[in-house]
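User: Show me an example of a complex going from sequences to structure tokens.

Assistant: Sure. Here are the input components:
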Amino acid sequence: MAESIPHGVDAAHDDHGDHHQQSFWQKYIFSTDHKMIAMQYMFTGMAMGLVGAFMAYTFRMQLAFPGDLVPGFGLVTPANYNALVTNHGTIMIFWVAMPVLLAAFANFLIPLMIGCDDMVFPKINRLSYQIFLLSTIVLIASFFVEGGGFGGGWTAYPPLSGKPIYNLTPLGCTLWVIAVGLEFIAFLLGGINFITTTMNARAPGMKLYDIPIVIWMIVIASILFMLSVGPLIAGAIMLVFDQTLGTAFFDPDKGGDPVLWQHLFWFFGHPEVYVVLMPAIGITAEIITVFARKKLFAYKTVLHTAFGTGVLSFTVWAHHQFISGIDPRMANVFTVTTLLISIPIAEMMFVYIATLYGGAITLTTPMLWALAFIAEFLIGGVTGIFLGASGADIYFHDTYFVLAHFHYTFYPIAIIGTFAGFTFWFPKMFGKMMNETLGKIHFWGTIIPFNLIFIPLFVLGAAGQHRRIYDYTGFPELAKYQDVRVFATMALLVMLAFQLVFFYNCLISWRSGKKAGNNPWNSNTLEWTTSSPPGHGNWKELPTVYRGPYEYSTPGREEDFWPQNVPN
Amino acid sequence: MVSYFIPALSTYAGDIDFIIDLIFWLVGFWFLLSEGVFFWLIVRYRKKEGVPAEYITGETPEQKRWITIPHFLVLFCDIFILYYAIAAWYEVKQNLPEPQATVRVIGQQWAWTFVHEGPDGKFDTADDITEMNELHIEVDKLYHYKLSATDVLHSFSVPVFRLKQDAIPGRVITGWWEATGTGEFSIQCAELCGIGHALMGARIFIETPERHAAWLAEQSSVEYAALTPSQSVKE
């Protein structure tokens, strides 16, 4: 491996040899090329996204028509239902949002955007994906072992998760924790790589303030992940010991403390939210500047608020635990920090709205997705205030209001952010343009049903409907809202149907789309200066950087863009 | 907002509804303003032939005003939210008025057990009254609850009181309520506690003093031996 890296070029290129012809295995399976690893992460993440979506379909059907056989699944028993909601949460956050946003886009974009030929640790990169794949296999295996999948909630609160006599899934719970732990190790390796590459392997002339926002955001996310994941891996090991060896870290019968797990979990879990939020916010910044032909409003402010958010995100974890039996005086402190963290996020939203002012906006598919991200994420942000204020949280905690709130944050992040990035960089990834008409059909067919699913759930939450209950018809106060639940389920079915359009669009665009040139969107950043798709090693000759990434519509130039590598 | 769906029947329910409504209006105002400006900008600055985009860095103070002023106004609104949120929280969770009666609430997989002191006002005596999945209480009487769990985490949630508190095995958590209206309402478990979590609903009967006295008189002190919490629970 490379020890000293002048610009990450020659030293890190040991693996590449002299661009010889590679065998199939070298090229697609054991590749150390960052673009191939990005694709592996992307498609694994999307495949797991389909698994998670199928789970959502299954338990939404159960909620709408309790006790009926669900087409494609069968009867949803209470144990099945718990396993479904648990693994839906686990998969959607750890196996979709993380690999696609943090790993796939980071792997694809970092070397291309900072102008180097590959990650500085290509083999660690490959190892990271392989561990991730192993963790995926372990997780899938946990559904099919004796006793079924783990059903203790994605937060896995002990003692329920710590003792098989309580959760009745002796193997499932252990495999689940092991899968999650392995997955964190994979992303830890990946994150170290992202930080190191960005700091050491930038193209000549690229100063820190010339790095595109999306790369900064990925770096901040990696730093957050690196600092927060330790306690959780420790906690996961303790939990496995509790489950298998009979230790009592979290078992109150023998002197353990169940609330300790909650602190360990949420000390990671809240920064984790920002870990997946940051890349999505970065992707949005790239897209709106390109399609509004505008310089990003207050680049440095965005950067500084992002760092501020990162620091603050370590101070808010216990707002998930107001009701959980912590000292009630602590809630006041965490209410203050939680309301404080809304400020930098609000500021970023203001920046994006201000960026649109005076632009020349073209509503292409990626732009629609990016604008939808801002509009929808605002809803997620403002409903968070209800839950961050301790007094209001007494009522809202563990109701559907929480559920709707975090779906309004995670859905824009993981799904809308992914679609935005994927449609925007598709020409660079595959060298073909996507079909705009199909793209817009898919956009509207996703965004409208999405709102129709989750806005009713806010209402149910305000009516006091609690989470994770497989049949509400037994509660007289809640049975009368059955129509609302059926409505949300129908909206979900419509939304899932429209995802077929996306896959069809990917397929035909990849097969027979219009050829994309090097720079179809007239963008400034470095990845658009090389061929589409970039060859092995990315560049014919390494670019030199002269200016920041957002010089659009600069006065005194004929063109309305000014690529970073053009001398004048 | 919440009281539209579900009645508010405890002394502090009004405070919690107030903070929810306050957040709703403050946040709703900012939300509509942001979304309104956002959509207006999209419509107003659509690409037109021959109209180039402006070049605005956003780095000068007079440009930055457009984000710093809203930012400070939001901070100003947050102060109000903070004050009323903490006031409501203090009232429910930190403040503990003198009780007129005490109830033990015990969560287990998957049922609620409620133990009343009985006529002598002491627990663990022969005249304790134990109920399963039904809680009879008196209106306008200040109760303390002593919440515990025997196996996993549960959460004692009474939506009409706006009350929620996790039950932790091995601990006894004390809190209070004072009901202000009569009727029959639901109690739910709000923390996932295994496969029977959905069946862990109970009913709360808030009664007038006369009815409650009549109910007390017809209770015999049945011991649910299997259901008493383990001896490790110390108060």
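The lines above are the inputs; the final block is the predicted structure for all two components together. The radius of gyration of chain A is 24 Å.
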